[in-house]
């Protein structure tokens, strides 16, 4: 299933204001062969939605401190 982000973005910005900080997070960065979306697609979606983009790997803790 490919999730198309953006449908809820307007609701968040309406509720919390246009300067709310949002990140599009790509998890399991080391499992490229199992991804539903490429890194480039993720970056493109983040740019289109005016959000930041970060790749993580929760199992190993990669980029988790940066995320939170």
Automatic annotation (TrEMBL):
GO-annotated molecular function: GTP binding; GTPase activity
Name of the protein in its database record: Uncharacterized protein
Organism: Bos mutus
Gene3D superfamilies referenced in this protein's UniProt entry, alphabetically: P-loop containing nucleotide triphosphate hydrolases
Signal peptide as annotated in the record: none
Keywords: GTP-binding, Nucleotide-binding
InterPro entries noted in UniProt: P-loop_NTPase, Rab, Small_GTPase
Domain of life from the UniProt record: Eukaryota
């Amino acid at each position: 299933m490919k999730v198309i982000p953006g449908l809820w973005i307007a609701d968040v910005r309406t509720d919390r204001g246009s300067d709310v900080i949002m990140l599009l997070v790509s998890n399991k960065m080391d499992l490229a062969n199992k991804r539903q979306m490429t890194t480039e697609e993720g970056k493109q979606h983040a740019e289109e939605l005016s959000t930041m983009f970060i790749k993580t790997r929760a199992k190993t803790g990669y980029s988790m401190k940066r995320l939170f």
